[in-house]
């Protein structure tokens, strides 16, 4: 071909291009990020709205439903992609879009429609926060700050020193502090004093709001210079707040100090952080999506060394959760596998080609193709992860094929007496059409996977498929240019003759190979005479291989398991359990974990559990998360999965009233503190009928063999004190519902807003909270005697309300704007997620559903099933494309079928090996 002839005639051009590819390839390798997972472009948005003091049902009706109705008008929302949770004082609406949506603009669209319903939300609802879900922004390190100093001192240093140092590290997106304490200025109102002066707590709130402010007044010009003008009445110390005037009376002013006590203190503690029994606080370092995990964590460790001399005495910073450890181990394992594949490829080539020169030609061609692939990976914004590294490793075999075929044909032309120059050109040209066709056959196997797989699975599979396709095409170009050029310069006639050690070895190897060829011919002749027997044996073998899967001897799972030396434990105590009681249960669990030599570190967070976003959290006093960090796999006798199964039994027996969820991160880091891998969502409109159906579904799930840790979102019930207004009596007393509600909330939870803050230069702004002095010890009687301002003076809350106890859910979940109950489960020891998902769907297919109610599936099990269906469809399309390409090459409709008949027989060996070794059919196995 002209390309080959040009390459052979112009070696300097090819050399220049090859060197350029080498240089840019090495630069690309150095710049590519290293992570476990690919960069996932997840078009999702979460809307968080705080409604202080509101119960879940109030949040549902007044906040969640208006926001859901607004968001539902947007296009490209995924199936079951609109979900929400209405909890105590907070609404969380999550929107997941299809891949057709623009991931960079969805948050703008959501914010636009949410702003459109702001006027329909209650006045005291805080502004909704719209955040794009970025899976790539992962917490890569958790640093615990502890020592022999008060927690308040650690908090101050963490906020104003450590957090800022970490945020300055290249590649760090944010650093989130988990301590359970938050500094605030508390205005503790004396209710008896208020009553004596004819005031209520709302008077205090109004005074702080109207006097604690700053107003930009514009700008003026003096002597040719512009000056901005501000009115400032902000207090910059707690002492200055004392002089605020609450009310002017004929007898003089009533100051804030007269009716309240002002303290620079901390909010009621909502979390406890502990490492190996010592309390402290945690800083979760979240990397930017494009950042390299290894370099970010290394930067954190270097920052700790710089910070240590500046910390208070007897304190220290320790990295307890380090994502780089497993990332580096996985990366090094795959990288070594790639290097070993190239090394063994070279040895095999040496055995068959018998010359060092031929082997070196191939070993130069392979890295050149791989370096060109790395350049394209940089252009496509890929990183070095398990998927792309596996693609590079698998592509080595394809890269070798192109060069070997070319070299073998060049050797044949050399044996015909041609010069190396002519042999290189003619040998490449003779098989050019076949080489191009075969290369495109390889490409069409993987391109449909990149195009046809949808959802989150596509984000993992597309980099794998396109990396192999790019490597294959790069290999084709190299085989037309660099390989013939090197062959024309380094190969010659008669290299297999002579008395050298390699020549003698080559002749002996060829004699042995000829012997095998003749034995194969002896086997082939009777096979051709008994065609139907061979076909029958082939069909029987295929049926046997498929039966191994159908009989359940080959399990199925979405992602392969991986031992990250970590067991994640989620503890949920009965609803309304206090933080202190939950802490006592966690101490018991920590003591049990201390008895296992496999556990090196126990990191516990009680009350402040991980939320939906990276590094985010939500407060729940009855919940805790415990991370058991293990010694390396080679230093223990059981895997993390086996230890997790054992711990589930131990903890369930020790804490019978608690719900224990054990998660073991798999090869991609999923399956830890995330949702349970098996999730069943029961949807309907009527709450009572929905709960009854959910109870039946939960019972069915519990009956599925291998399902453990079954839990329902309906299990969380809390006790509420509700003050119901007596409207005629309130009217007689001249009291409005708004004044009464505001007074009650301010007295119990306290009033705060972004407008009421203490601001000091160079330091974090501190909230000012106004609340009753006895809020922490309030009783039903205290609530009944709460003073409320009315038109006829100050009255007590109990004079116009009925106070009673109710049982309400701690949270209410919606899927597609319908109430939903989620039943979750985990696979027991030795049970695979895919097998459990199949068995569960078969069992639930027998449950009769009323009209208007539905059962859907979520979690890793459902995602795996969808991904497998998409991959099988893509493989079907790939086989069809392969057939058409070979049909064009062979010029026959029948010959391609003969080649494709080898595919079913390949399953016999694959399934047989998986059944013998106990290897499940995972995403990796299916792609291989």
Quick recap:
With 928 residues, the chain is α+β, with helices and mostly antiparallel strands. Helices cover 49% and strands 23% of the residues.
Name given to the CATH homologous superfamily of the largest domain: Multidrug efflux transporter AcrB transmembrane domain
- Give the CATH topology of the largest domain: Multidrug efflux transporter AcrB transmembrane fold
Tally of separate helices: 30
State the helicity in percent bands.
Answer: 40-55%
Shape: elongated
Q: What order do the helices and strands come in, and which of them pair?
A:
Blueprint: H1 2-9, H2 11-31, E1 44-50, H3 56-71, E2 77-87, E3 90-97, H4 106-116, E4 129-132, E5 139-147, H5 151-167, E6 172-178, E7 183-189, H6 191-196, H7 201-211, E8 214-222, E9 225-232, H8 238-241, E10 245-249, E11 252-255, H9 256-259, E12 260-266, E13 272-275, E14 278-287, H10 293-307, E15 315-322, H11 323-353, H12 356-379, H13 386-415, H14 420-430, H15 432-452, H16 455-480, H17 482-490, H18 501-529, H19 531-550, E16 566-572, H20 579-593, E17 599-610, E18 617-630, H21 640-654, E19 659-663, E20 678-684, H22 687-702, E21 707-712, E22 717-725, H23 727-733, H24 737-748, E23 757-758, E24 766-772, H25 780-784, E25 787-790, E26 793-796, E27 801-809, E28 811-815, E29 818-827, H26 833-844, E30 854-858, H27 859-890, H28 895-900, H29 902-917, H30 923-927
Parallel strand pairs: 7-24
Antiparallel strand pairs: 1-3, 1-4, 2-3, 2-28, 5-14, 5-15, 6-14, 7-12, 8-9, 10-11, 13-14, 13-17, 16-18, 16-19, 17-18, 20-29, 20-30, 21-29, 22-27, 23-24, 25-26, 28-29
């Amino acid at each position: 071909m002209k390309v080959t002839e040009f390459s052979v005639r112009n070696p300097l051009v090819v050399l220049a291009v090859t060197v350029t590819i080498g240089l840019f390839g090495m630069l690309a390798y150095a710049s590519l990020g290293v992570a476990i997972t690919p960069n996932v472009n997840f078009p999702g948005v979460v809307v968080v709205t705080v409604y202080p003091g509101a119960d879940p049902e109030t949040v549902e009706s007044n906040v969640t439903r208006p926001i859901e109705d607004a968001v539902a008008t947007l296009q490209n929302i995924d199936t079951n992609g609109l979900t929400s949770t209405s909890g105590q004082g907070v609404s969380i609406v999550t929107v997941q879009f299809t891949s057709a949506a623009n991931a960079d603009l969805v948050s703008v669209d959501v914010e636009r429609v949410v702003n459109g319903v702001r006027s329909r939300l209650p006045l005291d609802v805080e502004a909704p926060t719209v955040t794009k879900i970025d899976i790539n922004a992962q917490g890569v390190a958790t640093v615990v700050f502890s020592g022999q100093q008060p927690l308040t001192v650690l908090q101050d240093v963490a906020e104003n020193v450590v957090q800022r140092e970490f945020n300055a590290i290249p590649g760090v997106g944010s650093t989130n502090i988990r301590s359970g304490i938050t500094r605030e200025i508390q205005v503790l109102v004396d209710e008896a004093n208020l009553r004596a002066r004819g005031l209520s707590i709302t008077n205090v709130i109004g005074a702080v709001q109207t006097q604690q402010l700053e107003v930009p007044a514009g700008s003026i010009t003096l002597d040719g210079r512009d000056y901005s003008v501000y009115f400032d009445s902000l207090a910059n110390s707690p002492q200055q707040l004392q002089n605020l005037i609450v009310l002017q009376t004929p007898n003089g002013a009533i100051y804030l100090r007269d009716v309240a006590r002002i303290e620079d203190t901390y909010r009621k503690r909502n979390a406890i952080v502990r490492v190996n029994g010592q309390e402290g606080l945690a800083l979760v370092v979240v990397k930017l999506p494009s950042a390299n995990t290894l370099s970010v964590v290394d930067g954190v460790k270097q920052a700790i060394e710089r910070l240590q001399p500046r910390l208070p005495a007897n304190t220290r910073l320790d990295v307890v959760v380090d994502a780089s450890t497993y990332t580096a181990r996985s990366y090094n394992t795959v990288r070594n596998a790639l290097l070993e594949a190239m090394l063994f490829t070279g040895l095999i080539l040496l055995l068959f080609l018998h010359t060092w020169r031929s082997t070196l030609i191939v070993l130069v061609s392979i890295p050149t193709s791989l370096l060109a692939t790395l350049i394209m990976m940089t252009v496509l914004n890929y990183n070095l992860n398990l998927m792309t590294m596996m693609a590079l490793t698998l592509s080595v075999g394809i890269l070798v094929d192109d060069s070997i075929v070319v070299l073998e044909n060049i050797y044949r032309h050399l044996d015909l007496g041609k010069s190396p120059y002519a042999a290189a050109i003619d040998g490449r040209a003779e098989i050019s059409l076949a080489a191009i066709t075969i290369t495109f056959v390889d490409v069409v196997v993987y391109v449909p996977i990149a195009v046809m797989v949808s959802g989150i699975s596509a984000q993992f599979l597309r980099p794998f498929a396109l990396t192999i396709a790019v490597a294959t095409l790069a290999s084709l170009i190299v085989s037309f240019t660099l390989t013939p050029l090197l062959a024309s310069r380094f190969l010659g006639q008669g290299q297999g003759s002579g008395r050298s050690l390699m020549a003698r070895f080559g002749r002996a190897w060829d004699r042995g190979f000829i012997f095998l060829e003749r034995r194969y011919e002896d086997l082939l002749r009777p096979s051709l005479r008994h065609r139907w027997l061979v076909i029958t044996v082939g069909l029987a073998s295929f049926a046997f291989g498929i039966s191994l899967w159908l009989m359940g001897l080959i399990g199925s799972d979405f992602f392969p398991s991986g031992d990250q030396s970590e067991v994640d434990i989620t503890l949920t105590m009965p609803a309304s359990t206090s933080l202190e009681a939950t802490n006592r249960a966690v101490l018991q669990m920590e003591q049990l974990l201390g008895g296992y030599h496999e556990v090196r570190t126990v990191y516990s967070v009680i009350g402040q559990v991980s939320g939906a976003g990276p590094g985010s959290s939500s407060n729940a006093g009855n919940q805790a998360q415990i991370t058991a960090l293990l010694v390396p796999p080679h230093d223990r006798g059981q895997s993390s999965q086996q230890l997790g199964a054992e711990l589930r039994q131990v903890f369930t027996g020790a804490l019978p009233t608690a719900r224990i969820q054990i998660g073991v991160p798999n090869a991609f880091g999923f399956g830890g503190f995330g949702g349970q891998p098996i999730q069943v969502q029961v949807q309907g409109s009527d709450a009572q009928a929905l709960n009854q159906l959910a109870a039946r579904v939960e019972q069915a799930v519990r009956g599925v063999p291998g399902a453990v840790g079954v839990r329902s979102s309906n299990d969380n019930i809390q006790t509420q004190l509700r003050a119901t207004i007596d409207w005629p009596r309130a009217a007689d007393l001249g009291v409005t519902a708004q004044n009464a509600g505001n007074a009650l909330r301010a007295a119990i939870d306290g009033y705060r807003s972004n407008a009421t803050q203490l601001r000091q230069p160079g330091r974090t702004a501190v909230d000012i909270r106004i609340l009753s002095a006895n809020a922490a010890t309030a009783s039903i009687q205290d609530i009944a005697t709460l003073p409320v301002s009315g038109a006829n003076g100050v009255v007590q809350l109990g004079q116009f309300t009925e106070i009673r106890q109710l049982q309400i859910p701690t949270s209410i979940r919606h899927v597609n704007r319908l109430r939903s109950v989620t039943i979750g489960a985990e696979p027991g020891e030795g049970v695979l997620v895919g097998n459990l998902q199949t068995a569960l769907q078969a069992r639930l297919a027998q449950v009769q559903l009323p009209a208007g109610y539905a059962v859907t599936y979520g979690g890793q099990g459902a995602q795996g099933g969808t991904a497998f269906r998409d991959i099988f469809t893509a493989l079907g399309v790939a086989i069809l494309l392969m057939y058409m390409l070979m049909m064009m090459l062979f010029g026959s409709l029948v010959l391609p079928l003969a080649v494709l008949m080898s595919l079913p027989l390949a399953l016999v060996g694959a399934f047989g090996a998986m059944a013998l070794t106990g290897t499940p059919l995972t995403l990796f196995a299916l792609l291989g």
